[in-house]
Specification:
The chain is α/β, with parallel strands linked by helices and 185 residues long. Helix content is 25%, strand content 19%. The protein has five helices and six strands, in the order E-E-E-H-E-E-H-E-H-H-H.
Length: 185
Amino acid sequence: PTADDARYTSKNSFLETVNAVYVADVAEHLEIVAGEPMTDLDPVGPETLNVWMHARLAEEMGIHAGERFQITVNLRAAPRTIYIRGLWQAKDPSETFWFTNPDTSMRKTLLITRTGYQQFIEPMLPAKSGFVNWHIVLDDSPLNPKYAASYAAGFEEGMAVVNKYLPGARLDISPLDPLKQFVDR
């Protein structure tokens, strides 16, 4: 909370762990249940980051659109002021835009615009990002089982190329192990 927020007994109250996240083209997939649509709106004050909070988390915490809080990378870092511009939920949590149900997986996510990320979050992080994620869905409809070994080799080669440019990159869910098991049968 901000220092002048009388709802909390200590000015250093820790309320919740959240992530400030930029997701490209997310606005059209959101239902804004309170507040303003997710766009590059001017900040309400200097050094204030506009955020959109998941409606379920806001309800649990008793937070409303239009309130100010502070976030920080860790408890030792200087805090930044955030302004809750809106409360969101997914229009359709099962649509292909989402790789998991965002109303569950992104409940503790503060959505921000690209501009907000570049102006406020990047300077707080030594690596400019805490996590980068690409959702890649492979179309397996044209797969031919007789070429499974080639597919596995190509996938491994692709990961080598990715790791050349993004050292330490990994897959959360890799199709490679099941593919290798199929090849070994």
